[in-house]
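Build the 3D complex.
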Amino acid sequence: MDTEISGIVCMFVATLVISFPLGRYIAKVYEGQRTLLDPVFNPVEKFLYRISGIHISREMNWKQQMAAMLTINMIWFLLGMFILMNQSWLPLNPDHNPGQSPDLAFNTAISFITNCNLQDYSGETGVSYLSQLYLMFLHFASAATGMAAAAAVFNGLKSSTTDKLGNFYNYFIKSITRILLPVSFIIAILFVFNGMPMTFLGKDTLTSLQGAIMHISRGPVAGYVAIKHLGTNGGGFFNANSAHPFENPDYFTNMVEMIAQMIIPFAMVFALGFYLKRKKLAYVIFAVMTLGFLLLVIPNISMETKGNPAIAAMGINTSAGNMEGKEVRFGAAASGYWSIATTVISTGSVNSMHDSFMPLSGMNMMLAMMVNCFYGGVGVGFLNFFVFIILAVFIGGLMVGRTPEFLGKKIEAREMKIALIVALLHPFLILTGTALASYIYVQDPSAYAAWLNNPGFHGFSEMLYQYASTTANNGSSFAGLGATTPWWNISTGFVLLFSRYLPIIGPVAIAGSLAAKKYTPESAGTLKPDTATFGLMTFAVIFIITALSFFPSLALGPIAEYFTFH
Amino acid sequence: MRLANKSLFQKDIIGQALKQSIVKLHPKIMFHNPVMFTVEIGTFIMLCVCIGILHGQKSQGTFGYNFTVFVFLLLTLLFANFAEAVAEARGKAQAESLRKTREETPAKYIQPVGEMYVNEMKIIPSSQLKKGDVFICEAGDIIPADGEIIQGLATIDESAITGESAPVIREAGGDKSSVTGGTKVLSDKIKVEVTAEPGESFLDKMIALVEGSSRQKTPNEIALTILLAGFTLVFIIVTVTLKPFADYAHTPITIAAFISLFVCLIPTTIGGLLSAIGIAGMDRALRANVITKSGKAVETAGDVDVLLLDKTGTITIGNRKATHFYPANGIDEKQFIRAAVMSSMADDTPEGKSIIELAKQNNDSNFISFEKKAGMKFIKFTAETRSSGMDYDNHRIRKGASDAIKKLIEKSGNPFPAEIAEKVRSISENGGTPLVVSENESAKGVIELQDIIKPGIQERFQRLRKMGIKTVMVTGDNPLTAKFIADKAGVDDFIAEATPEDKMDYIRKEQTGGRLVAMMGDGTNDAPALAQADVGVAMNSGTQAAREAGNMVDLDNDPTKLIEIVEIGKQLLMTRGALTTFSIANDVAKYFAIIPALFIMAIPALQHLNIMNLHSPQSAILSAVIFNAIIILLLIPLALKGVVYKPVGASALLRRNLFIYGIGGIIAPFIGIKLIDLLVTFLVIYLK
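Done.
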């Protein structure tokens, strides 16, 4: 087999091999079982709980859970604004970077608490090390927020009838101390040994062979990059993200980063199976997600390795694939794999420039974010999938002649309403965002020329990609879009807020409502969600809802571009 | 008077429905159906566009094209209304035919003029009878209103409502004390108290339910409507945002194209047929001669997990029959048979009659006389003695359950023979019912009665098991007999020596386990259990209390009806699911018809998306709209008849329906739209 391809297969298999036991471990953590790390963290946690007056044995209903979630997120947001705006005089600023302006700080703080990590600043000059450390904290906190919400949903799917879904603070702290911290630690060590900087010293200076003096930015990179991927955050330490040699030095670190960003989304699905003792259900969900992933990633790898026909027509050898905007040390295939991995899950870190991919590769990346639940971000990926399960269960349940039920709990008008609001929000934000941007642009194309480096179909794709990325809390972008204008800062900021919190609150509310219902044991007449048929049904529902909502816009962007190409 | 064999569309029903489909265009009525309401708005906009073109508007294309779009949008609405109207008309026709029988019959009303006078009788029209009034019916009278017999006994011909020609006996005090308006008294005289205000009988309620005045959406219908409204909203977003997208791409899109895109994408098929499906469910129940008190009851029936079935009539044929005479040791067989006959002479129960019948077969030498003689004193069965029989000369002959007779014998100091006790036990174990006959307080022998299990009932229970439904046999028999029959018939569980409390407890127990329970009952005793059960089917012959407590009434008094009702419920839900799937799957093809049509003028490269190779943008849009309208019309029969239910287990059922309505729903419109496009193209060329 081609080494490029075998490298990809290796990455996928390794991810799977690590995530399965990790899933079992995550289930153990949420069940409250003892773990090896208890002696280290228990005393610390107890102390923290005592000073903050939290009683973790007190279970919360879904509203209390979400109130806790929103409150702590709000505090981090305000603290983040403060640090970013005042970083110039705060400690750990060896390079004397200035404080951020209020609007930039607003955008940065929001995009980091929402796990999106759009970055309108450059890591080298826009933030101090203190700010980087705080953003790194938000990497942990935003990932743990999603995981804690997923844990609450797991709890709500148990067969007992209760309105309590466990304690949010407990899930949150455990997610950090028992899962994210230890795994990040291991990953960071691997990075350090492969040449990633981990220092609080300021810029290094170096005289090049030509005699020029170069200032080289560095910092606590390894620790930052570990959680950047593990928590599917994606906000880079440096401006060039994982294409930067210090942030992704070689093929090995590329593999580790790739694996790191996918293990928790994988593991959360397995954790569901272990937690509910419904392993088969977890396998079916995982299979559906994998099917979706493969259907997107295989064409991308193939299109990127084939190269660009327009460049080939100029008589240039494209045997290495479409290498525009890609790093030679990773190659076309690994970049193609990364492009879908980073978009199906909500990382949004890049190791190549997505804008330069083939039109349909770009479409697949957009589709990945439009679906947003083939694995998905840590915790939230499952939550998004859960909403589609509810929709599929409803239609499928009717087709077997029973009023719909999922895991023994009836799906009624209330659950349907919430599921639809969440499912509708996604196309609504992406399409209205793009529509408003198109409208403004069309009013006076010359005034907004700076927005689009490439007008026409590709320019449309750039706008569509930007809203798909913010709505999916992904954070990657088609770099051709000039997004540092007030319109893009403000509109994406709002999109971020809605698209982060409603899709978390919705599923938790559904779980809360299901948990309070009577449990009906399964019989031969009940729709079984852990069968291949139901898996396909869920896949069809996801495909149809996405395809139906986005087909016209994709037709005007990447599809039109593709057909014009050929 | 079952209408089950009548064809789906009758002339008068069609006429009525056509009129209703236009009446239902009223926005106020339309508003209840969000999907079709948006179509109505679209249709109205198209009407405005057409008027605009007549006034010289140039940018929207030809009048002919726009008008055709308008017409087919209007047809979409009419077809949807027609579906609902046909379902309503059919249900109403069915209910009306039942109601007609009781209109304006004279009633022999008893005027309460005080304690002193009785039987002050006055003839008034039935419509003036109020709840609580008392009337009299004699042989030949038509019973003027639903009521409960408070005095007397009568044979009644209920064929008007049940279609069953054999007369039935109804009498005061028992579990069979209810009479239905419109049925005919054949013999004797009864005094009846009216139990429902005029216009509030079950039938009246049913008719109102079908007509829509009191029809409420069921919980599942509401949830489905939310889903459909959600899909409609998505496509509002898609269509509205398409305008700036198209502006960006410098692609002008006509209003007709926008509206067609929108209407074709929203789930009009299921949206248009949804209420028809619900009404048809109630109607199918009515065709099975079951009156439902709400649409929800039918829906719940589909969810039932446990069925409580009465043994008699459901699992076994009617009543037990005598099959053997076993004399006690030292008793001549003929002597014993004679005693048995004498004990049963006045026993009018089917069991008693079957004893006489069996004795007649064994009476070779005319040893036994079957004539009643003077001096015979017949003892009726009572709940205390639990035996019956006769006194003649110095003979006291009794027949009863073994424990009752045993008590009688032992009380007088005589021993109860061991071989009799043994026989009783062995009969019970083999599913029979032993009756012991005694003469002057000494045992003469045992009569064996056997239950005859209905042919085909085992397969039926197998079917239910595949549906995931647990069957429970309810019987007054002792546990041994009950177990034997339960095993033989293949039910999952049984309640022996069942009292109404036992039934109630069983239902409660299952319900705490989260299961839904259906039961059928007739007696006043059953009322609490009927009310407790999730689906309670009262027999029409049952007491008023039972009929009030249940949520369905079975006019045929047929205990096997429960099984049918469950299937009707499942069919109703499946039809909804299948048509929703079909409707949404259709969108794939419609997209491939309309999207290229919208853009090819400005972006010729998108011609590649026109995989159906439709003739022109206009013909593509028209074909999609026409297909969208016609499919509703074509699916009306399916909506009314319901999707075929096969008891093959949930997974197989899902596979089957996904294949037919999912895959079929993707493929069918590709073919349909292409054909319509060919036809439209041909017509356009031909007309030119």
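Residues 532-565 of chain A form the longest helix (34 residues).
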